[in-house]
Amino acid sequence: MQDKLSNAQIAWRAAQDIEDGSYVNLGIGFPEMIAKFQPEGRDVTYHTENGVLGFGQAPKEGEEDWDLINAGKKPITLKPGAAFFHHADSFAMVRGGHLDLAVLGAYQVAQNGDLANWRVGTKGVPAVGGAMDLVHGAKRVAVVTDHVTKDGGPKLVERCTFPLTGVGCVTQVYTSLAVIDIRNGRFILREKVPGLSMDALQAITGATLYIEGDVADLIVPEELA
């Protein structure tokens, strides 16, 4: 069986499905990697909650302009036509339904599309950020995540047990082992890593995986590992 995908490989796979001409918000941390793997010739406009539309690749080390950062406080570059605006205007774009896609990380995703990604029970410091606005303002919400927790428990579950970020908002999940659609309250398996049996995948998934048509091999560039 192929080893599980790295974060970079998951991000690469998610990037392949972002449509040309889309306006996209990438969550802080792991989801930000997706911008690195934008397919050649595809025009995607990235939005960040702190007030930039149309930012580009991260600058080379030593060439950072720390007046240009994203919501995760990481340095960015600008594409031609990029725009700056007030934080409130940025969230007006989100809440007004002007984003085609938001891609976020997750602690749990339920089979009905519920998302929990801001707090694990009562542990740690709550960090909601703009996620609650994004999951209900963007036209589509996808998640990138490891398939299981650090303890080996399922992240894809029948029902979230952590505090919810959004209800019924996620339509697609890209994990370290599979690509899964969420439709009609069910996990629909689209792709899985080569050599991984359905029984093995189901055993580490906390809700039933359904199959509609062929399940493709999840193939990603090895050099990204």
UniProtKB/TrEMBL annotation:
Family indicated by similarity: Belongs to the 3-oxoacid CoA-transferase subunit B family.
Xref: InterPro entries: 3-oxoacid_CoA-transf_B, CoA_trans_fam_I, NagB/RpiA_transferase-like
Source domain of life: Bacteria
Descriptive protein name: 3-oxoacid CoA-transferase subunit B
UniProt keyword list: Plasmid, Transferase
Lineage, broadest ranks: Bacteria, Pseudomonadati, Pseudomonadota, Alphaproteobacteria, Rhodobacterales
The keyword Transferase appears for this protein: yes
Organism of provenance: Sulfitobacter faviae
